[in-house]
């Protein structure tokens, strides 16, 4: 079945797309199906996917194992409330999450989306200190250049400028921001970076509940890779100043950076961990917030007597069953060789972009390849140039980047990297 011109017109007139305007919206690309690494368009053309549907479809589209898990679960039940009821998909998913995530994280809250997982993490940190009678610890500290989601708690810890929520600054709770670490990935920690964080913790640690950060890779705030030593040091400082560490691995979790979790680059465990996006292999929305025995016990022993969160679709069995199937694929470990190969192909394929005048930096880590330009790209101009070349690449700000599915072939990666270089050359 194809999408009719009337349907496209209806879309244009009535439907909000992410970060879109209702005044003269850009044309949408109509997709009718997807298979492996290909998005099939209304007119029969196919695009090679370089985005993994915002970094989630790691195993590719229409995957037989994930399809089977969804169909089998549909035949049993799509949803049942999680209050007072439990079910096997949630139990087995939680078991696997505890097994795969950094050690010590063995209490699982299943959330509806990445942003909700961040809200839950923030709430856990606040409730932890409240339960200890230390409700003065109610602020957060975070890094400039971060992005944690679109809901209000999450927005309050996004970079006030690059985090896309600048217009809400006046109404968001005020938290502490430290500069984005200048120590890049693979580099030792620079004193100025560690001092900046320590200074805030020293001055304001008594009112800070938690440090929240995207370990190693700041995603939507600028596709920036920073030193694992910074994370290691932050872990130590958090212990020293009695501040919880929340690792937002919604973008980095499940192998994307070359380690199963970005925290593994620094060999640390956070106090609270958020995962999402690739959790269901990009099939549907689901996320999770994990924490330690100590934090869970403290929250539960506090005045409220329970953790104060419980959305309608919490633990949705259909999403849990698909997530379980996705994690079973992750558990085979094949992601390691896939990411290693993709990393070297991205590095080789994007290298020529370093010669371009318009390019500030090319950087690659795991399954992420970024060409940062000196000036912002015009999405309206650049997006059709990729579609014309049979590629799905969606740049933002100054970044033209690739985050392809792990199953991408060498030919797919070559087509994507050649396309990026060609388009950037054409824009010189
Ligand atoms: C690091 C990080 N945290 C949180 C989110 C929000 O997740 P969601 O869009 O599923 O709400 C994102 C989304 O891009 C993200 O990259």
How do you describe this structure in short?
This protein has 428 residues and is α/β, with parallel strands linked by helices. It is built from 14 helices and 16 strands.
Task: Write up what this structure looks like.
This protein has about 425 residues and is of the alpha/beta class. Helix content is about 40%, strand content about 15%. The chain has 14 helices and 16 strands. The strands form 4 sheets. The chain has a 7-stranded mixed β-sheet, with helices on both faces. It has a 4-stranded mixed β-sheet with strand order 1-2-3-15. The longest helix is centred in the first third of the chain and has 18 residues, at about 115-130. The chain is globular, with a radius of gyration of 21 Å. It starts with a helix and ends with a helix. Pyridoxal-5'-phosphate (PLP) binds next to helix 5.
Looking at this protein, list some descriptive labels.
about 425 residues; alpha/beta; seven-stranded mixed sheet; four-stranded mixed sheet; 16 strands; globular; binds pyridoxal-5'-phosphate
Chemical compounds bound to the protein: pyridoxal-5'-phosphate
Radius of gyration: 21 Å
Please state the average pLDDT score.
97
Structural category:
alpha/beta
Give the termini distance in whole angstroms. 40 Å
β-strand number: 16
Shape annotation = globular
Q: What portion of residues belong to β-strands?
A: 15-25%
Individual helix count: 14
Question: What is the succession of H and E elements?
Answer: HEEEHHHEHEHEHEEEHEHEEHHHEEHEEH
Order of strands, widest sheet: 4-12-11-10-7-5-6
* Uncertain stretches: none
């Amino acid at each position: 079945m194809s999408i009719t011109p009337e349907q496209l017109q209806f879309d244009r007139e009535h439907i909000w797309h992410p970060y879109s305007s209702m005044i003269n919206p850009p044309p949408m690309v109509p997709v009718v199906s997807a298979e492996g690494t290909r998005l099939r368009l209304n007119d029969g053309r196919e695009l090679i996917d370089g985005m993994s549907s915002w970094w989630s479809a790691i195993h590719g589209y229409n995957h037989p194992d994930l399809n089977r898990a969804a169909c089998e679960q549909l035949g049993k039940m799509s949803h049942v409330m999680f209050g007072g009821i439990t079910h096997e998909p949630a139990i087995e998913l939680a078991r696997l999450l505890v097994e795969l995530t950094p050690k010590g994280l063995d209490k699982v809250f299943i959330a509806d989306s990445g942003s909700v997982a961040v809200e839950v993490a923030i709430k856990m940190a606040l409730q932890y200190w409240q339960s200890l009678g230390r409700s003065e610890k109610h602020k957060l500290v975070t890094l400039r250049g971060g992005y944690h989601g679109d809901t209000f708690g999450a927005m309050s810890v996004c970079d006030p400028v690059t985090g896309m929520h600048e217009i809400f600054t006046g109404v968001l709770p005020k938290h502490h921001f430290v500069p984005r670490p200048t120590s890049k990935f693979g580099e030792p920690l620079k004193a100025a970076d560690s001092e900046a964080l320590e200074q805030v913790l020293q001055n304001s640690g008594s009112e800070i509940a938690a440090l929240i950060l995207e370990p190693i890779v700041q995603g939507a705030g600028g596709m920036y890779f920073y030193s694992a030593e910074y994370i290691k040091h932050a872990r130590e400082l958090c212990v020293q100043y009695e501040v919880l560490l929340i690792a937002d691995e919604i973008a980095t979790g499940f192998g994307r950076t070359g380690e199963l979790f970005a925290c593994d680059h620094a060999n640390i465990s956070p106090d609270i961990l958020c995962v999402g996006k690739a959790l269901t292999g990009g099939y549907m929305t689901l996320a999770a917030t994990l924490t330690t025995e100590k934090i869970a016990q403290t929250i539960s022993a506090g005045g409220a007597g329970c953790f104060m969160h419980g959305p309608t679709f919490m633990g949705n069995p259909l999403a849990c069953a698909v997530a379980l199937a996705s994690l079973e694929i992750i558990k085979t470990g094949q992601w390691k060789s896939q990411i290693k190969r993709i990393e070297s192909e991205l590095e080789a394929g994007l290298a020529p972009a370093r010669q371009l005048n318009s390019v500030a930096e090319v950087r690659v880590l795991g399954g992420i390849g970024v060409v940062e330009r000196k000036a912002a790209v015009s999405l309206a101009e650049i997006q059709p140039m990729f579609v014309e070349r049979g590629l799905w690449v969606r740049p933002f700000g100054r970044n033209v980047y690739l985050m392809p599915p792990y199953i991408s072939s060498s030919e797919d990666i070559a087509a994507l990297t050649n396309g990026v270089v060609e388009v950037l050359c054409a824009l010189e």
